Structure formats: structure tokens, C-alpha cells
Amino acid sequence: MHKPLILTMGDPTGVGPEVILKAWLSGALDGVKRPLLVAGDTAVLQRAAHLLQADCTTGEIADGLATHMLQAGNRRLAVRSLSNLPAPQLSWGHPDAHCGKAMLDYINWACDQCLKGTAAAMVTGPINKQAILAAGCDAPGHTELLARRCRTDKVVMMLGGAHLKVCLVTTHLPLKEVPDTLTTEDIVATIRITDSAFRRFFGCRNPRLAVLALNPHAGEGGRFGDEEERIIAPAIAAARQCGINASGPHSADALFHFAARGDYDAVVCMYHDQGLIPLKLLHFEDGVNVTLGLPIIRTSVDHGTAYDLAGTGKADCSSLVAAVTMAAQMAEKQ
């Protein structure tokens, strides 16, 4: 029996519950060759089913990690109910501290199952950072929270789809802080983690990694900045000495054309928007967020709680389907 993929429900007042239910009810997850288990709240999931006008029943079970089973016609979805929120009283887009604690409980439980080896991977739904802060967690988001839980010092945020995959050296920083934050050591570590993950999980024997410059025209010989010569080029040279197929620094304005047509397996980007603008241009609906460098597999939807759509039944489940599919594919490589 295959170990399950755990889907964390995310913010109970956001689109997480409904995109899980929409993907399940539509049959979009039928091709996944592993059992699925939702870490969440049965009452909230039932509310999502009602929103989607699905006739869905819930029953208690004692089957491995599951405590409940959702059923709609011939479809069944296992659930580990980890909270008991008053679903009818929850207001879309307004999570409270109880919702924040529930979000943390879903994530921590799923992470622990992956660490123990009872689950193959976790796929996370979107959370609200203010709500988890109100619940006592000061982590900026999923990535940092999971790194702490796994006791991992360095992880890499990757976002990707079929045509483009980008890995970030720095993530959520003011743009003016990026030049002073970049170090040769961090760039080398990002390249090495990316190379290792692509060899292990993405079937690349010799991953082709394009490393971007920070400044326009790769600094143009120092005219537009010297970070390329001082910081980035030495990192690429060090990575190549370790046998990694890394090239650059490449000018970001031209490189993505070649990456998107398949000349590179991944692009190592210096800052958040440098990578995410082209990624979301190509993969706005089906992009996947993956945390590389953890001892577990974690993928995620590449969107937030979408409070403007929560409760309407109009949220697109494409990113969730892509995240589950990628997690399953990565799990097969373990």
C-alpha cells in the first residue's frame, strides 16, 4: 500500500477547503496513484461541499491516519480532523486566532507524519500569516515554519510549472535590502540544493542551472553594479568546481526566453520578483511552490487565501491539482 499524500486545508476562511473539494469532486485528482488524506476540519470541508452544491456525507472511521471519510456518490476522501471549528459561524476572509491555531495544527501534524515516514509528502493549502501570528507563531510563512520543524538551516523556495522552474536565493525582502543580503555562500548553497533536488526528484542526471545576474545587463562590466563580479561569479565558479552544471551570471531580461523553451532545467534568481514575474506570466493558474532542501517533500499551491473569491465557489483548483501531481511524482523518486 502506498503511503498517502497529506493535503493541509489551509485557512478555513479562505479558498483552501473549496479548491480541495472542487479538485476531488471534479475527478481532477483521479490520476494520482497514491491515496490522499486531508488534514483539516470535517465541518469546514462539508461547508465547502455545500458551497459547491455537492451532496456530501461524513462518517467517522478508524483507518490508518484518517478519522473521517467524506463521501459524494462513489467518491471517497479520507480526512484527519484536527480541529472542531464552528463552520457556520466562520466569516469568509476573517480568520481568528482559533483558525490560526487550526492552520498550524494541520501543518505541524502533516510535517510530523512525513518526518516519521507514515506519509509520502505534504501538499499545503494557503494560510494567513496574521492569523498564525495571533496563534503564537512568528514564522513569516510555510517555508520558514517547516524549516524550523524539520530543523533545517537552509532551504530553497522553488516555483515551477511545465515550462519554467525558478529557485530563489532571497525571498521576502524589501528590494533595497537584496544587494546587501546576497552572499557568495548563500548563492552556492542555493545552487547546490537545487542541483541535488533536481537530480533526486526531477530525473535530471546533470541539471542545467542558469544563474541570474542582479543588475541590468549583468552589471555591464561594473557600470551598473559590481555584485556580479564580487559575489555571483565566484559562487558559480565554486559550484562548477563541485561538478555542478551552473552557468552565468546571465542577464535576466533575456535568459527567461531560453529557459522557457527548454534550454535550462532551472533558473537561480537573486530576488523574489525577478523569478516570480516570468513564472506567473507562464504559470499563473498551474504554478507549484516547492520547498527544496527539507528532509521531506513539500509542495504547495502558488496562490494565497484569495479572500475576494472565498465563499463564491469560483476559485480555480488548477494549482492544487498541479501541486498534488508534482508531490506524487517526486514521491515516486524517493
TrEMBL record:
Cited InterPro entries: PdxA, PdxA_fam
Keyword NADP: yes
Alphabetized UniProt keyword annotations: Cytoplasm, Metal-binding, NAD, NADP, Oxidoreductase, Pyridoxine biosynthesis
Catalyzed reactions per annotation: 4-(phosphooxy)-L-threonine + NAD(+) = 3-amino-2-oxopropyl phosphate + CO2 + NADH
One BP annotation, GO: pyridoxal phosphate biosynthetic process
Record's cofactor remark: Binds 1 divalent metal cation per subunit.
Assigned EC number: 1.1.1.262
Further comment: The active site is located at the dimer interface.
Entry's family note: Belongs to the PdxA family.
Complexes and interactors: Homodimer.
HAMAP family from the UniProt entry: PdxA (MF_00536)
Protein's UniProt name: 4-hydroxythreonine-4-phosphate dehydrogenase
Record organism: Syntrophotalea carbinolica (strain DSM 2380 / NBRC 103641 / GraBd1)
Underlying gene: pdxA
